[in-house]
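Incident log, entry 3
Record: Protein SCAI-like (555 residues)
Problem: checksum mismatch between cached and fresh output.
Input:
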Amino acid sequence: MTGVGAEDDIPLCERKTVTDFCYLLDKSKQLFNGLRDLPQYGHKQWQSYFGRTFDVYTKLWKFQQQHRQVLDNRYGLKRWQIGEVASKIGQLYYHYYLRTSETSYLNEAFSFYSAIRQRSYYHQVNKEDRPELVVKKLRYYARFIVVCLLLNKMDLVKVLVKELSEEIEDYTQRFNTEDQLEWNLVLQEVAAFVEADPLMILNDDNSGVVISNRLQEGGMPLLEQGMVVGQLTLADALIVGNCNNQVKFSELTIDMFRMLQALEREPVNLATQSSKPGTLEPNEKPAKRENPHKYLLYKPTFSQLYTFLSASFKELPANSVLLVYLSATGVFPAGRSEREGPYDFGGVLTNTNRDVVNAFIDIHSVLVYLFPFTRKPLFIIVDSSNSTAYKNFSNLFGQPLVCLLSPTVYPKSMQDPCQRGSLFTLFLYNPLMGFLSVCGLSSMRYGLWEKAQELLRKVFHDIGQMITSSRVIDQAYLQFYGDEFLRLLMIRFVFCCTTLRLHKLFREAGSFPESYPPLPKQEIVESSLLQKRVLELAAMLDVQNLFSDGMLDNY
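Fresh output:
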């Protein structure tokens, strides 16, 4: 509204429209800012607050749509303000995805972010002499890129990165700001993140093919009649990234990015379920689909890690499993005592602002303080240069416990496996991509990729049969086998073990993955059938010269 006299000329109904809009706008900002105060852990404390926030933003969005002309004329509503509301709704959906692990919310976030770009809501921002508005636009681009990365929309990511680069250049030229280096670092991080994929899959016309690595229907060996497995369900997962110098974007390392997708089902596009296709409205009741709830912890302190572990453990439902994934730089003890305990084997690095001595205590604690959490079913994956510290675990409470541990050394001829993502995690995320990586293959035709995947499905079926029919395997593996995500992780782990044991470059003592409890070697890891399958895959890809014909006696 402009001026007191002008306000008197406004019809009462239009004045009320502006007043109602201002109320909804202020209420939405208040609720959105309050989200920062909610605890990041726990399942229940935040749900009612999120619900109220969604409700207000839904009303606000519909209100500005219904009264756009009045708000334009009487309030002076600008397009960037509409864009801000849409951006906030996109953020709400993204954070709801982080809280619930329901991948369909990513599509909802994408819908709003995409509409902002298509409708040029932020277009006029560059013409205003207000750097804070331009920063809003830059932050919108960064958030949109994260959602596109998680949805594997890589072509769009490249376009958005180019647009962001141009926006940053314009921003830094027009305003003498102190955050120029920070925004350039954002560009460098996302460029490195996109380039971290070790393989390009090509169509016949040499265009790239984007492969989804989330769990799809029919994407894993099914339970067959006669298989006696447990009924446990993976309910919670802590995904921890603390590798030095690893590619990252927005507090998400490449290893964390890969593992979180390995624990998700393929998203469903909820927009197709809308009663009004093509409209942009917050969807209030997405379809319910079971994914394990995840906490993403980038370089947490030990106390933060322990807090999240405790909260997850406390709320773990009956007959459920807690998964802990640690991708971290290994730290080793300075010396060994005569009596070796859990502290004497080192562990993995947690973030700390204290001195090196105290950091070392924290590092050991990650291992030893996991013991209380073995009172419930626990599934641990450690990807670290000191992963073998975790094979000295003790199952004190008799609950199912499995640790999958990465190799601790890699062939010197291979690129640093940590910087662009660990080879071990790559196998757990996409085993065929891991296989091609150790073979030095960086591109492949889509037709050959599909043939290799078909063979891999047979390999996985064989591994599943070996695990469930073994009479000497630890019962923990069978207890976890009933869950689809854990089943796939265990099968991919076995495939990784056999592949690296046959590969000629992997010959040092620490070159192979290990597990606790140990898997039967002759029946599973060194099975002649499994070796034959791996060599068949190598022959299909014309890389059989990189593999031994059979197991060597000594490693």
